[in-house]
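In the previous chapter we treated chains in isolation. Here, by contrast, the input contains two separate entities that must be folded as one system, with a combined length of 1004 residues.
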Amino acid sequence: MSGDRLDGAVLEARDITVRFGGFLALQGASLVAEPGQVTSLIGPNGAGKTTLFHAISGILAPEQGETLLDGRSLRGMTPDKRARAGMARTFQILELFSGLSVAENLQVAVEGRSSNRIWRDLFSLRHPDNPDVLRQVREAMDLVGIAELADRPAGSLPTGLSRLVELARALCTDPQVLLLDEPASGLSGPETDRLHEVLTSLADLGLTILLVEHDIELVMALSKQIYVLDFGAMIANGTPKEVRANPAVRAAYLGTEAVDA
Amino acid sequence: MSVDPRLGAARRTSGPWARALDLIPARLRHWGVLAGVVFVLWVLAAAPGQWSYLGQQFVAGMSIGAIAALGGTGLVVAYRATGVFNFAFAGIATASAFIMYELTENNGVPVWLALLMVVLVAGPAIGVLMDLVVFRSLQRRAAGTAEKLVANLGVLILLLGIGGVIYGETTYQPENIFSAGQAFQLSSGSSAVSVSWSVVGNVSMIAAAAGGLVLLFRYTPLGRQVRAVVDRRGLAELYVVNANKISMLSWAIAAAFAALAGVLDAPIVGLQNGALALQVLQIIGVAVVARLRNIGTAVAAGFGIGVVSSLGSALVTPHYWSWLSWIPSVRQEFDVQVPVLTTIIFLLIYRSLDESGGGGTAGVVTATFSRIGRRSTASTVRGVLAVGLLAIVVPALLGGGDLVTAQKVVAYSVAFLSIVAITGYSGHLSLATAAFAGLGAYITVRLRNGLLPLPLATSIPHVPVLLAMVIGALIVIPIGVIVGYPALRRRGLILGLITLAFAQVVDAFVFQDPSWTSGRNTDRPDLFGWSLSGDRSFLYFELVVLGLVLLLVRNLRSGALGRVLGAMRDSERGAVSVGISLRRYKLLIFGASAFIAAIGGSLIVQQTGTLNVNPDGPFSPLFGLYWFGAVVVFGLSYRVSAILAAILYIAVDVAVGQRGASLIIIGAIALFVGYLPGGIIGTVLQFVRGDGISPSPAQQSLARFARARAQADDAPPPGHDLAPSRFAERLLAGTGSSSGGGG
C-alpha cells in the first residue's frame, strides 16, 4: 500500500505432496497465480485446499515440491519469512489477536516486519504511535470498510466482520500475494458485495490473489483462472467457463452416478 | 471406487513387538536403546564380585519404583478421565501421610486398619470433595484447560498450606508399613540377595492396585464407562454416560493412588510437609514417559526409573566413577537426579504429550480489554512522581518488624513481576520463576563469597554484592533464553511441565551441591561507600530497584513491542502470518523474565542474609507453583497484582504468625478462578470499566443513577400534588397579604 500501484508477484506451487501419517493429503498439486487477477482454488470439503494453503504459506513442510515467488524458491523459509517476503494470508478458522483492538491488530501487521523497534521500546520512556503506520492502518480500514470498528476489541466482533479485519490485517503487511481462505463464509449479503468490490479493485491495482471459497457465484464472478482439487490432486483448471463445462469437475462435485445418469 | 486412494501408503506393522515399538517415537528408539545398552554394559562391567550388593540395590529400586508406578498410574488415570493434570496429587499424598501418622502414632489404630482407612476412605474422600467443590462446576461451565489447571494447583497449595499451619516444618518419622525384616532370600552364598517384607509389600501394593483397576474397568458397568472416557474422551461423551458419576469416580481413584504413594513414601523420605510433596512431584516423570496416556507404560516407567536410580546411585560412587568426582553434585543425589532428568529429556524428545484441550492461557490471563500502552512523557513523569512520593513517605512511617515485612514484600514483588511478563503479557505458562530467582540469589551469594557460580569448589576474588547481583541477573538471561527454546514449539501444559522439570533439575544439580558447606551468607550492598545495610536504607534501595523493574515491565506492555507480545499471546499463527518472528520475541520475553526473576531472587537473599536451599527454602521447585498461584489469583496481566500478591504471600503469614496461612488463602481463591476471569483485579476492572463491548455493571448503575437524578431534577418537588393543609393555606395567604402590604 505504499504506492498507487501494488506490485504483485507470480505465485507458483510446484508438485506439492503432503502426507499425514498414512494419509496422502496432497499428491503433486501444482498451480500458478498471476499478478493483477484473482485465481481460485475450489473443491469438495476435505479435498486439501487448506492443506495446500498451509504448504504455500510455510506452516506445513511438504514431503515434496516447492513454492516459488516470482521464480524464486521459498524452500526452507519459515512462515514469518514468507510473510515478510510479500505473502499475506487469512485463515479459515479465525486467527485474530482477540485481546487487541482492531486498529492495533492492523498496527502489529505494519510494524511486525521490522524488528528494529524492540530495543528502543524496551528501554525508552515514550512509545508514541508512528503517524506513517497509523496512515497505512487507516487506509486499509477504509479500503475494506471497517473504519468505524477501529477501537473495538477484535475478540468481540461477529465472524463476518472478523473476516474483513483479517483481510485488512493481511493488506497491512504490504503484500504481493494475498491468500484468502474462505473469506466470504459468515459474511452477510452486503458484506459479500463489499468483499467482491474490494477484491476486484485489489486485483486491478496489480495484486496477486489466490482464493479458496465455497461461494461458487462469487468464485465464478471474480476469477480469471480456477483450479479444482479433489482427493489431494488437481483434476482440472481453466477459465470459469471451461471449469463449469468440465465433466471431471461435475463428477467430483455431483458424484459419478449423477453425471452418468 | 472401493479404496480411498489416499490410504494406499499406510504403514503396516504386525506382531505385538512391532506394535509396541511403533508407540515409541523413532528418534527415541535409537537413543533409548543405546542408553539402555550402555547402562546394562556398565552394570555388568561393575558387577564381578558385587552381585550381592547390586542385587540388593536392584531390589531396593523395585520397591521405590513400585511407589512411583502407583503415583504415575494415578496421574494418568486422572488426566485421561478428567482432562486435568493432577498437580494436586503431591498435596493429597502429603495430607494422606499425615492422616496415616495421626491414626497410627497418636490414636493407636493398627497399621493395616489405618492403611485401609487412608487409602479407601480418606484419600478418595479428598478426591470426591475436589470433584464436588471445584471440578464439577468448571466442567459444567465448559472451562478452559488453563482454568482447570489453576484450580488444580489451588488444591495443591491449599492442602500444603493446611499442612504447614498444622505441622510446620517439623520432620516426623512414621513407622514402616511393612517390616524391614527379611521375607525370603534369593540365591545364596556370595551372591545372596535378601528381599525384605517392605519390598514385597510395595510391589504387591501396585500389583493389587493395578489388579483392582483391571477388575473395576473390566467387570463393572461404571468402570467400563470410565475406560471408554479414558480411551476416547470425545467419542464417549457422545454416548449417554453419566459424566458426573464418572468424574467423581475418577477423582476418587486418582486420589486413592496418590494417597497410597504418599503413605508408602513417607517412611522412606521422612514426613515433612514441603519435603514429601517435593519428593512426590518427581513422580510426574513417570506420567510423562507414559505420555499421559498409557497405564501399562506408566507402571513400567515407574519400575524402570526406580531401578535405574537405585543401581545408578550405587555405581556413581567415587569407587566406580572417580573420573567424574570433580562434579561433586553428580556423585550424591543420583536418586533424585534420575527422575528429574528423565522428565525433562522425555518432554524434550516427545515434543507433544497426549494433551486434551487447548494449550493457551485463555480464561486465566485477562478478562478486560486493555489497550496497549502508548503513554506520553508527561503521563510517565506523573506516574513516576506519584509512585515515588508514596515510596518515600511509606517507609518513613514504618518501623521495626513492619520494616522487615515491607522489605520482603518489595523483594517478592520484583520476582512476581517476572510472572506478569512471561505469562500475563506473552501467554507462556512458566512454573520456573522460583528457580530463576534462586539462580539469581545463588550467583549473588557465590560471587559475594568468592566462589564460582557453578557446583565446583573453585575460589575466585570476592565480588561486592551489588555487582554480584547485576552479574547474576545478566548470567541468568542466557539460561532463560535456553529454557525458552522448547517454548518455540510448545505451549500450555507441556511447557508448564518443562519449566517445572527445569526447576527440579536446577534444585537437584545446583542448589543441592554437597561440596558447598560454607559461604552461604551475604551482606547488603554499599553504594559509593554509602552503606545500604540499615533496615530503612535497604528498603529504599529495594524500592528503587522495584521502580526500575516496573518501568521495564511497563515497556513490555507498551508500544510496538507490547503489541507484538500481545499478538503472540492471542494467536501465534496470526502473528506469524504478518511476519512476526516468534523465535526472536519468545526468546526475548524468556530472557527478560528470567532477568527480572533473578533480580528479585537476589533481593530476597540480601534481605534474609542467608541462602536457604532446603525444601522449605524460598526457591525450591514447589515454591514456583506457590508464586504462580499467588499472582494468578490477583490477575496475571496486571503489574499491581504482583505487588498485591507479594503482600498476600508475605504479610498474611506475618500477621497470623504462622507459615502456610497465606497459602491457604491463595489456594482457596485459586479453586474458584473460574468465577474470577482475569483474577481479582481483572474481575474488579471488568465490573468498573467493562469489557470494551458493552457498558460494565458499574457504568450501567452509574448511568441509572444519573438518569434518576436527571428525572428528579426535572420533576416538581415531592408533595406538589398534595392538597395544601389548612395551616399552609393560611400561611400562603398570610405571605401573600404581607407581600401585598409591602408593595
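The CA atoms of residues 111 and 117 of chain A lie 9 Å apart. Chain A is about 40% helix and 25% strand. Compare these points with the single-chain example from earlier in the chapter.
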